[in-house]
Design brief:
Elements (H helix, E strand, L loop, with lengths): L1 H16 L3 E11 L2 E8 L10 H22 L2 H4 L6 E3 L6 E6 L18 E6 L1 H9 L8 E3 L1 H7 L9 E7 L8 E7 L1 H6 L1 H5 L9 H12 L8 H9 L1
Parallel strand pairs: 3-6
Antiparallel strand pairs: 1-2, 4-5, 6-8, 7-8
Helix pairs in contact: 1-2, 2-5, 8-9
Length: about 240
Amino acid sequence: MGKVIKSFYEGLPEKLKVYGVDNKTYSLKNMGDGFMMFFKMKKTKTKHFPSENHSNISLTLLKEVDNLLSAVEEREDILKELQLKTVITFLTDVYFYNVESDNGYLDSNSSKGNTGPIIRHDILGRGVDFSFRLEKFGGASHYCINKMFYHCIEKHISKSNYEAIKTSKMVKGWTEPQEFYVLTNPKKIESNKSTLTESSVNDESIRVELLKYYLDKLSDNTDTVDIEGVRSIILM
């Protein structure tokens, strides 16, 4: 599993560098049973948002996340009953800062044995907190994305395998319901339908939106899905 994540972490900077992403600000943070990866985009000359560059970066990132999760999901011997959750956000008004490693002066990336302080990056801001809160609504059947990331891929989403569902939920730390989107498709829901129908799923989840979308997509093909069964779950 570590090799899969390492390959993603080391390969993504090169794929995004062509779009002007600052490959010196990549950082990977372990967060208990998950991890957070972030990077800083260079300022663009245009004031229009999203620019074509923003869209290219976002679509490339979505594709690479897809590839990562496909590789991870192949390791069923490790995952077992673990349900992966994925959140992708585009943030502004956040603060990047450098932190020198507490592990001393060992450059683990140096093949020549050179040593020096390891400078790691971290990030602060309201948007970071929002990204963490969206994890609550994540699941194996979909990705959660914020509005800014959605706007980056909105005109190009047909190039991906996904469709976006807009939703609004109460998010801890905010006094009003917050809008965000979930990216999904019938295949992902079909493969993970059991996680949406478990009685343990709380009422604050987005299972209703996902199952209604699933019904709309498959209602014309009643031979392959138990429409009434799914409908009864939605209505219970």
